[in-house]
């Protein structure tokens, strides 16, 4: 096999060091695709050259610098004299792009090609063999290369330190890459540099959570870059394998010596996504079967599920919807089921199957509970295998007419009132928010409806503020009351509740302004008078605290001045 001259290796490496690293998928050409027979100038950092398309390639992907490409080629001078060729079609030329193994122009030409494409590149000396030339190519010659891009293997430096080199042998589906929480199934075979097999998975592969890892530290790092069905060859340096310790023999496999470089062939055969439903890892959903479309149930949806509920040791304590039994129907966000199941249901699509792992905080808490098939011990983590059979989403405000919006707002407000009476302040607040959304200021109502809508909206904001006070969310109280006061500047309830919130966040002067205004509007209001008395005590305490602070500050300043004078006199003496 005749190889290309390496006269440009030094220049290429020097230039590559200065260039910014290209991102995968970076577009090389922005011009329209070439037609067969068309010619175009290609620009590179080292100079320009011509490309003529002889045969279209497949798809739209192109190799990148660092990839291993396989080509057939013929190199010739302008008079047709050939100086290099792959005459044997069974032995194409394989090399790594951007590593100085071919002339500069050919490196930059091949990254514009598609698989199966054939092109003719005309290279001037500055991107060819320059003033040095090679055997068969005089100095400063213009050369031509007819190239067929047979294939390429994408090469990725996973950790960007040369410790894990990944060669993509077969691309996967557009599913992935997996996250730390996801469960994966992989097949792999591990060999030493001399070909000795030191590990191999069973034919069905091995399942594990990415965060838990498997075999050696390199595997989870690589898996998080892969897609389902992807096959790779890995070259793993000792620091990402077993370091200077090595690994003892296991089963029928020999030990791995210290400081061993490993070759790993691996396929990512399955991904089971795991979703952190609550954001604190206390309700996790592992998807066993994807549902239909992209729409999920929402808060207030009527859902129908079947499930098997177990303890962590596998003891089944509840089973609904199997063996002729009726599935479970419930409305989400209405506390009709445990919180973990309720929250997870709002993330599921129709037909989706999933395993839910629910911590006690979102399950049955610290109490012992008797269910149909078993007793649930206190503080138990529980597991539900759930299938979402069907759901009907709660109608969105934009899907309603004005009359329907008003009726829905009145209904939600009443639901909020009932929840407030029994101390369910968070759920009550959500009902008031929803009611206010139905009669939003952005909606145009008739003149006859405007008075009712305005009263309803202000009432929802005030009730929402009352919920936030109970929940110690004082900034939300201030926000909601301010919305009311923007519409009715003398609303005593809004002034009273905002003053309460201002006092809680130590904004005493603002609280004083609200209380004064409320008393001006309603001088006989007992609640406002009581809070005025509390505010007076707080202001007096604040003044005493400030006076004490300033006294200490001035005392310290006086002492410092006296000490400075003494030091000055001592220095003069």
Automatic annotation (TrEMBL):
Keyword DNA damage: no
TPR repeat ranges per the UniProt record: 492-525
Domain of life: Eukaryota
Bias type Acidic residues, positions: 13-29
Domain PPIase FKBP-type: 66-153, 181-272, 300-392
Gene3D superfamilies: 3.10.50.40, Tetratricopeptide repeat domain (1.25.40.10)
Pfam families (alphabetical): FKBP_C (PF00254)
EC numbers, comma separated: 5.2.1.8
Family to which this protein belongs: Belongs to the FKBP-type PPIase family.
UniProt protein name: peptidylprolyl isomerase
Organism expressing this protein natively: Forsythia ovata
């Amino acid at each position: 096999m005749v190889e290309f001259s390496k006269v440009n290796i030094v220049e290429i490496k020097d230039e590559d060091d200065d260039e910014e690293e290209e991102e995968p998928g970076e577009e090389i050409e922005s011009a329209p695709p070439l037609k067969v027979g068309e010619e175009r100038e290609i620009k590179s950092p080292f100079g320009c050259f011509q490309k003529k398309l002889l045969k279209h390639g497949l798809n739209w992907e192109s190799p990148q610098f660092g990839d291993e490409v396989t080509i057939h080629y013929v190199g010739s001078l302008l008079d047709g004299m050939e100086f290099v060729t792959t005459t044997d079609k069974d032995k194409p030329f394989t090399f790594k792009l951007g590593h100085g193994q071919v002339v500069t122009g050919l490196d930059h030409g091949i990254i514009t090609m598609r698989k199966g494409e054939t092109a003719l590149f005309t290279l001037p000396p500055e991107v060819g063999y320059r003033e040095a030339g090679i055997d068969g190519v005089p100095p400063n010659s213009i050369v031509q290369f007819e190239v067929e891009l047979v294939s390429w293997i994408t090469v990725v430096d996973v950790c960007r330190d040369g410790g894990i080199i990944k060669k993509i042998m077969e691309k996967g589906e557009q599913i992935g890459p997996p996250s730390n929480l996801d469960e994966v199934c992989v097949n792999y075979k591990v060999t030493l540099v001399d070909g000795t097999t030191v590990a191999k998975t069973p034919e069905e592969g091995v399942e594990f959570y990415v965060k838990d890892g498997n075999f050696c530290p390199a595997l989870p790092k690589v898996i998080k870059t892969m897609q389902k069905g992807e096959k790779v060859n890995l070259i793993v340096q000792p620091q990402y394998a077993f370091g200077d310790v090595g690994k003892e023999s296991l089963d029928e496999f020999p030990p791995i010596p210290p400081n061993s470089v490993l070759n790993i062939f691996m396929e990512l055969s399955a991904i089971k996504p795991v979703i952190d439903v609550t954001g604190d890892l206390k309700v996790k959903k592992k998807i066993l079967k994807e549902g239909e479309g992209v729409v999920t149930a929402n808060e207030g949806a009527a859902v129908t599920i079947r499930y098997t509920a177990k303890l962590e040791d596998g003891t089944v304590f509840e089973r609904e919807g199997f063996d002729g039994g009726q599935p479970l129907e419930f409305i989400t966000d209405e506390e009709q089921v445990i919180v973990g199941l309720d929250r997870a249901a709002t993330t599921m699509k129709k037909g989706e199957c999933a395993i839910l792992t629910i911590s006690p905080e979102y399950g049955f808490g610290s109490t012992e509970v008797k269910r149909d098939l078993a007793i649930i011990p206190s503080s138990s983590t529980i597991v539900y295998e759930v299938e979402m059979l069907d759901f009907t989403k709660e109608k969105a405000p934009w899907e309603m007419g004005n009359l329907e919006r008003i009726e829905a707002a009145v209904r939600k407000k009443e639901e909020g009132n009932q929840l407030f009476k029994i101390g369910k302040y968070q759920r009550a607040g959500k009902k008031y928010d929803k009611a206010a959304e139905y009669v939003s200021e952005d909606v145009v109502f008739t003149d006859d409806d405007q008075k009712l809508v305005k009263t309803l909206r202000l009432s929802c904001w005030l009730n929402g503020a009352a919920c936030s006070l109970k929940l110690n969310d004082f900034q939300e109280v201030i926000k909601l009351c301010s919305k009311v006061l923007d519409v009715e500047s003398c609303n005593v309830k809004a002034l009273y509740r905002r003053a309460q919130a201002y006092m809680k966040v130590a904004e005493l002067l603002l609280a004083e302004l609200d209380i004064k205004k409320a008393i001006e509007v309603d001088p006989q209001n007992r609640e406002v008078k009581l809070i005025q008395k509390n505010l007076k005590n707080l202001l007096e305490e604040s003044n005493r605290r400030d006076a004490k602070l300033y006294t200490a500050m001035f005392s310290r300043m006086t002492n410092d001045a006296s000490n400075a004078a003494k030091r000055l006199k001592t220095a003069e003496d």
